[in-house]
Amino acid sequence: MAGMHEIDYKIYGDDMQFVEVELDPSEAVVAEAGGMMYMDDGIEMETIFGDGSQQNTGFMGALVGAGKRLLTGESLFMTVFLNRSHQRRKVAFGAPYPGKIIPVHLRDIGGTLIAQKDSFLAAAKGVSVGIAFQRRLGVGLFGGEGFIMQKLEGDGWAFVHAGGTLQERTLASGEIVRVDTGCIVAMQPSVNYDIQYVGKIKTALFGGEGLFFATLTGPGKIWLQSLPLSRLANRIVAAVPGLGKGGKEEGSLLGGLGRVLDGDNR
């Protein structure tokens, strides 16, 4: 695999942010299709199969990379933005909904970041965008977004998006925090991820928080968001006449049972 491209960047805005990446000649950045906001003349777009890190391994390597992306619910294709000019050029990527863009230099955190599958925005070309299966059966059955997460590997810059307000925490060894599964943005692979039952059926059915929550155990860094996209979407759907699921208050008995049956644990 080729070395990472050493890109420069600047983040603009407060609640609706975008990141502007400055590329030297022949430098490139990869992003999800549809994320580009603007780009300077001289930057060439190319749609690639997979994540852009498998280009030296032939068709089968690209096929494996694309298959991993398909499992996380993403497109089989990504877009590469390559500076073909002889001067520095800029390309920008906008956040999909209100929140914060998090720049992470993978080399500084050990080379790997585990991220929620819909949080990845862009990265220096050469960063591998794969999948991370959670090991425990409970996570697989009840983890919601947390079951299959993205694994970003490399030593360059990666940009992920958090909805609402961002909190970055560093957990000490053995330190535990319990989190709504949708509120997890990213974490280092050293953090242990598991799903726990709330414990009281009355709390689960009437409390409006679902039957399960995520348990994160240190050591390592975690990034949390206050407004997951799924929560925002559910509130919008519930507020539009005729589009809701027919339930009343979110914390009602029927609402709690409905979320369990349809796989929505929030």
Proportion in β-strands: 35-45%
Radius of gyration: 20 Å
Low-pLDDT residue intervals, each spanning 5 or more residues: 55-64, 137-146, 246-258
CATH architecture descriptor text: 4-Layer Sandwich
Profile the largest sheet. 6 strands, antiparallel
What is the name of the CATH superfamily? Mitochondrial biogenesis AIM24
Mean pLDDT: 77
Number of strands: 19
Order of helices and strands: EEEEEHEEEEEEHEEEEEEHEEHH
Structural class: alpha+beta
Strand order of the largest sheet: 5-6-3-10-13-8
Count of helical regions: 5
CATH topology-level name: Double-stranded beta-helix
Distance between the first and last residues' Cα: 40 Å
CATH class assignment: Alpha Beta
The shape, in one word, is globular
Task: Tell me the count of domains.
Answer: 1
Helix content: 10-25%
